[in-house]
Amino acid sequence: MTKGQGGELDPPVIPDKLMESIIVELEKMDAPFLKYLEKELTLEWLPDDESRLGLTRFEMNTNELYRRRRLNAPPGKITIGLNCILVDDDKLLKHTLAHELLHAAGLLDHDGIHSRIVKKVAPPPKLKESIVLKKIRQEVLAGLPERQWICGSCGFTWERKRVTRPTRCPKCAKPFKV
User: Do residues 36 and 109 touch, judged by C-beta distance below 8 A?
Assistant: First the structure.
């Protein structure tokens, strides 16, 4: 992704191999809008104040969308919006885009099939590989009331670095209790 005139980001693009991988995975699936994506799909960057990493927007309401899905009718205009914080994180950008492309193709629900395909065609980055995920984790940790953990068994105190509660104390190894 590059900046165009005036410092604006160029619109996002779908990497060829990503779309090819998705098409292969959806060959034997019920993805009624897949054949319309080339004509009906546009990609854009979301506004700076948007908290979601990505979203798929159809011009139809939900009832009409499911009706068109059932009848194999065209879905109308489809827009995928991506958060501009993904510009510097290729793996998370591809993962998010794959997720949204599956919705645009007609897999509207978040189910096991949806998750399996996304993980196969664009696996999510590990936390240590993603500057965006690290930033989000830091924001979550900063908003939590506990800045440190204190073991209820031995009294050992350590700095909180994870969002989830520890299972054991790092000093006495007993199950963690507050």
Answer: no
